[in-house]
Specification:
Number of strands: 0
Order of helices and strands: HHHHHHHHHHHH
Oligomer: single chain
Number of helices: 12
Distance between the termini: 25 Å
Structural class: mainly alpha
Helix content: 55-70%
Largest sheet: none
Strand content: under 5%
Radius of gyration: 23 Å
C-alpha cells in the first residue's frame, strides 16, 4: 500500500484558533448573532456556513467514503473489515444561554451540571460495530495486530507530552490515518506553505487578552467582582476557570466510584453564585459588547496585515473540501 510522505507541523494552539475564530462571546459562549471577521476564513475549514442538516449529510457522505477506504486498506493488510455506518448527530440540543439569568441560576457555567447531561441514548439508536464478531474470533496476538493495522502503533513515551497528548501523523495512524489522508489530502492548516500565517494567528489569539482595551475591560470587571465579594480575579475568564480547576482537583483525588455527590452539589451551589455575580458584572460593565468591539477591531487589523496569506489559505481549504 503506497503512502505519501508528509511532515506534520501542527500549530500548538490550533484548537484555540478554531474556538476563537467563530464569534466567541466574552463569557466563553459562542451564541452571538454577529460573526467575527476571521470566522469567514475559518468557516472554510470546518463547514461553519452549513446548516445542521447539511453538516450531517456531509459527515455521512465522508464517513461512507472513509470507511470504504479503510476496508480496502485492511484487506491489503490481511484482515477483514466491514465499513461501519455513521453514528454521530449534529443536533445542537438545548440552547446555551449564558446571558439569561434563569439559565445561569440553574446551570452556572455548566461545569458540574449542564443541559442534556442526563439524556439517554436509546439502545436502538446505537449502531453496533459490524466488526466486533470478527475481532472477537481472533487470537489475542491477532487482535493486537488488527488494531495496530487499523489505528497504528501506540505512541512511545518519548512521543507523549506531559498532558498525555501527542503529535498526530497520518503515516503512523494505520488505515484510519491513510484513509483520512486519501479522502482529505494534505490539510492546508497543517502544511508548511501556511505555517507562518498559522503561527501568526495562534500568537494573535494567545495575546489578544493583553490588548489595552481588553485589559482595561477586565480591570473594570474585576473591580465589580471585588465589590460583589469575589476578589482575586484578574480577568473575566478566571472566574469560570476557577470552578473547572477545582473540579479537576476533585476528580484527580476521587476514588474509583467517582467524586462524592455532596461535594459536587456544594461546588455546584458555589458555581451558580459565582456565575450570577459574574453575569451581573458583565452586564454592569457592558462586557460582551465592549469585548466584541475590541476583538473585531483587532481581527480586522490582523486581516489587513495578512490578507494575501489568509486568502490563499482559504482558497486551499475550499479546494480541499470541494
Amino acid at each position: 500500500m503506497h503512502r505519501k510522505t508528509l511532515r506534520w507541523a501542527a500549530p500548538a494552539a490550533v484548537g484555540l484558533v478554531l474556538a476563537m475564530a467563530g464569534c466567541t462571546a466574552a463569557d466563553g459562549s459562542a451564541d452571538s448573532t454577529e460573526e467575527s471577521p476571521l470566522s469567514e476564513y475559518f468557516s472554510a475549514f470546518y463547514g461553519g456556513e452549513m446548516s445542521e442538516e447539511e453538516q450531517q449529510a456531509h459527515f455521512e457522505k465522508q464517513n461512507k467514503e472513509r470507511e470504504e477506504l479503510i476496508a480496502q486498506c485492511m484487506q491489503d493488510e490481511g484482515f477483514e473489515y466491514i465499513p461501519a455506518p455513521a453514528n454521530m448527530s449534529f443536533s445542537s440540543g438545548t440552547e446555551w444561554k449564558p446571558e439569561d439569568r434563569d439559565f445561569v441560576a440553574q446551570w452556572g457555567y455548566g461545569a458540574v451540571k449542564y443541559p442534556d447531561a442526563d439524556a439517554q441514548v436509546e439502545p436502538e439508536q446505537v449502531t453496533p460495530d459490524p466488526n466486533s464478531d470478527y475481532v472477537m474470533a481472533l487470537s489475542e496476538s491477532e487482535q493486537m495486530a488488527y488494531y495496530e493495522a487499523l489505528y497504528g502503533p501506540s505512541p512511545s513515551e518519548e512521543e507523549m507530552s506531559e498532558d498525555g497528548s501527542y503529535e498526530y501523523n497520518w503515516e503512523t495512524s494505520g488505515c484510519h490515518g491513510w484513509a483520512d489522508h486519501e479522502l482529505n489530502g494534505d490539510d492546508p492548516m497543517q502544511s508548511d506553505e501556511f505555517a507562518d500565517v498559522m503561527d501568526a494567528i495562534t500568537k494573535f489569539y494567545e495575546t489578544s487578552a493583553t490588548l489595552p482595551a481588553m485589559a482595561d475591560l477586565d480591570r473594570e470587571w474585576a473591580e465589580c467582582m471585588d465589590a460583589a465579594g469575589y476578589p482575586g480575579f484578574a480577568a473575566q475568564a478566571d472566574a469560570q476557570n476557577s470552578i473547572y480547576e477545582e473540579l479537576n482537583g476533585v476528580y484527580e483525588n476521587s476514588t474509583e466510584t467517582g467524586p462524592d455527590q455532596a461535594t459536587m452539589d456544594e461546588i455546584h451551589e458555589r458555581e451558580v453564585e459565582l456565575a450570577l455575580a459574574d453575569l451581573d458584572c458583565r452586564k454592569e460593565t457592558d462586557y460582551r459588547a465592549k469585548y466584541q468591539k475590541a476583538q473585531f477591531e483587532a481581527e480586522e487589523q490582523f486581516i489587513a496585515d495578512h490578507k494575501a496569506e489568509l486568502d490563499a489559505m482559504k482558497a486551499a481549504a475550499e479546494q480541499a473540501r470541494s
